Amino acid sequence: MIKERLQALRMEMKKEGIQAYIVPTSDYHDTEYVCEYFACRKYLSGFTGSAGVLVVLMDQAGLWTDGRYFIQAANQLEGTGIDLMKMGQPETPSIPAYILAHLQEHDTVAFDGKVINLQDYRQYLAQFSTKEIQVENRIDLVSRIWKDRPALPSSQTFHYEERYAGYSIDEKLEKVRFEMKKFHAASHVITKIDEIAWVLNLRASDIPHFPVALAYMTIEMDQATVYIDGTRLDDRSRELFEKANVRIKGYDDIYKDAASLSGPVLIDPHFVNSTLALSIQEPIVEAQDPIILLKACKNETEIKNTKWAHIKDGVAVTRFMYWLKHQVAQGSITECSAQGQLQKYRAQQDNYLEDSFSTICAYKDHAAMMHYSATPQSDVVLKPEGMLLVDSGGQYLEGTTDITRTFVLGPITSEEKYWFTLALRGHIRLAKATFLYGCRGLNLDILARGPLWDQMMDYQCGTGHGVGHLSNVHEAPNGFRWRIVPERNDSCVLEAGMIQSDEPGVYQEGSFGIRHENELLVVAKDQNFYGQFMGFESLTFVPFDREGIDVSLMTQDEIEWLNAYHQEVYEKIHPYLDPEEVSWLKEVTRPL
């Protein structure tokens, strides 16, 4: 089927005189996880991962993806005629280099400019001009061949109350306008749907696991406009929009209105799609969208709420751990049924809306695929042996959670125990860090990787990412990574109020996968002659599996940290458990 779809695309390319067509994983808003309407790359390639770019030439094709998906992509691309391009590997050419190597002068590269941001569009222009290759950015070929393409989502919105959000729409608009003045901007174009959701305290369910609505927005000094189908809006949001002088216009009207905005117009070229950006007539000011940082630094209300969300989530995952440990010997649990049981425990918590991403429930060698997704075809029975990696999270009215635990289901090898412990040591070293203000994730990443790097081991992904508030589970601009990856935008100075995951791991293809993940809150500690010292406060409270730990490999301060953490897990979680669960929890959180 994939070969037939590629052939249909190539027929359309031939009609238009196109020699290369680029299909990213994106939508009109540069969203990480996209709804089915925008699943064009998946439709054409069969690769279901969340990140990747497909390039189709007339006689060959390549798919670029990162280290999280190398194993999965290799399996899913087999027999399609699409070559896997492993990003970050020295032998892998960049997308422009690949295209330049196969096209001739005056050939044409095309894509739908609504799903390519301005920054990427410019880079393509610059690099392809070296060979006088033409760039066409207004051709959507996928819609021509995808006859049963799903409709754009149109879920009903709801107002996110201030008791959860902390600030009103008026207060947030005031903060954004204050930042706009620093750039002398008269208008600001916003396309990121998580930012619009934050400014307008607006939530919906257009994208699975990501409770926001597809929309555009412009902010001027005396008014703002949200571009969305007005019939979708709840009455409370309409009322508050009118009060804040926020107009409502049709979803596609932004492209016409962009030409009449007052200038200078502030845009973030890394997010605003190229079709929209090129529609603006007034001078533009290019900068990181100020909403990114405003949104990432959680206010006191958000912090208070998310702490409660994490307690509820900790109860759900701890109850799942108890259930798993006591039921696995019966031989009736599979990967799919296990993740279903975890979701049931979450759904029992007040104000649970949905999972915050598709659960990764991976047994033994499946866990070596960092973003494995169990299907009826891959589903396996869990046995009282080996390890089960479960990466999951919940969307609650109080906040967003993300946690990974690697559960020991029975006997494991000395090698598995060794790497389980070293990965845990990395997690602990980062969680207990104290650092001077001004540090970025780049400065701290070595703490997590250190125990693994000492043994010439690594994991081909970042160590952690920012987390939103009833929003995207991967939030810019903070993260942990040992090198700058421009498209990630996760290397900012760590500010108090940011929420950050800490998730080192070890992945041995064909054998096992291990990951330990908590969410951390960035906090200010003491200030003295040397400056402002910062640190982290744990938000996630679920036991780490003692059965995977080789205590002899740990330092005394690491043992003390883990004992203190487990004591806090017991104190915070046991009041919400049954007596049998409490007795078990006391045992699995006892000091090492």
UniProtKB/TrEMBL annotation:
Stretches assigned to the Peptidase M24 C-terminal domain: 532-592
This enzyme's EC code(s): 3.4.11.9
GO annotation, cellular component aspect: cytoplasm
InterPro entries documented for this protein: Creatin/AminoP/Spt16_N (IPR029149), Creatinase/aminopeptidase-like (IPR036005), Creatinase_N (IPR000587), Pept_M24 (IPR000994), Pept_M24B (IPR033740), Peptidase_M24_C (IPR032416), X-Pro_aminopeptidase_P (IPR050422)
Residues of the Creatinase N-terminal domain: 5-132
Pfam families the record matches: Creatinase_N, Creatinase_N_2, Peptidase_M24, Peptidase_M24_C
Keywords in alphabetical order: Aminopeptidase, Hydrolase, Metal-binding, Protease
GO MF term set: metal ion binding; metalloaminopeptidase activity
Residue ranges of every copy of the Peptidase M24 domain listed in the record: 308-523
The organism's place on the tree of life at top rank: Bacteria
Family: Belongs to the peptidase M24B family.
Descriptive protein name: Xaa-Pro aminopeptidase
Organism: Faecalicoccus acidiformans
